[in-house]
Amino acid sequence: MQRCPNCDSLISAQDINIQEGFALCPACGGLTKLSMLNHSGRTIQETLVQPPSGCSIVAEGERVVVRGSLKSIPKFLFFAGFALFWNGFLSIFLMIALAGLYSNLIGPLPEWFPAPKENGGKPEMNGAPMDLGMTLFLCLFLVPFVIAGISVLTIALMNIIGKVVVVIDEFDSYAATGFSFLLWKKRFKASQVNDVTFGTKTWQSDGETKANRFIELRSERKIQFGSLLQPERLEWMCVALKELLLKDNTKRTMPDLPELTWLKRDEN
User: What transmembrane ranges does the database entry give (predicted)?
Assistant: First the structure.
């Protein structure tokens, strides 16, 4: 059962127009896009009291940090296995390229160097020692494969230690996605946020229309984030941000949420 994102009331199937893509809330009379409904069926209070694993709201002085983990063991195992296979196979050619550079620019390869084949102190390619031209060509040829290997490894790390972090601060608010020091930040002004909602991106795949939801903060400009979060974590983060950014401290569904004394709201 879906809930209205405005008043948190239940919306029955009779109040949903699938063809038009809208739902009418019988309680508040609001017309809402289907993508913006609370599809979990849980109330705002239930969602905040029982956050999904890896999700938290932490007060750090005068700012609040909302975290959602991107951790997914099945996805991590898949991409880590693929990265291991890809980069392991790629390392053979990288060693050949490195051996070619060393032998053409410095001197004969040391005996301990793990080059697959040697011919006259140089790595062998097509039955002959690699000259500098062939070595440089191989280096350039391998660039896109190295980029692909790094990308797959990054995706694997995102699925084990990645996170989506929203920092609500009077002077420096931002939404960031990534891990460790690799964070992609999108900045916004918390005092100017006037709406927190879901957005949807659609695309065609094998003749079918597929969709991906994300969170959209609207202020003087729109920022979008959270598309990598699992559905229940995305729902929780959207609800948490609505409570923190759009409601006054005294009018929240959960009064024990961290207070932002510098952020004043005149309406629910």
Answer: 76-102, 132-157
Domain boundaries, the chain: 1-41, 44-71+163-268, 73-160
What's the pLDDT tens digit per position in 26-68? 888 777 777 667 666 677 788 888 899 999 999 998 899 999 9
**Is the predicted pLDDT of residue 122 greater than 80, yes or no?**
no
Sequence-distant (6+) residues with CB within 8 A of 85 are none
Place of tokens 């508040």: 28
d(CA 267, CA 176): 28
Which residues have C-beta within 8 Å of that of residue 140, sequence separation ≥ 6? none
Neighbours of 75 (CB within 10 A): 17
Alpha carbon distance 28, 5 (integer Å): 11
Q: Which residues pair with 211 in a beta bridge?
A: 202
With beta carbons less than 8 A apart as the criterion, state whether 232 and 156 touch: no
- H/E stretch holding 149 reads helix 132-161
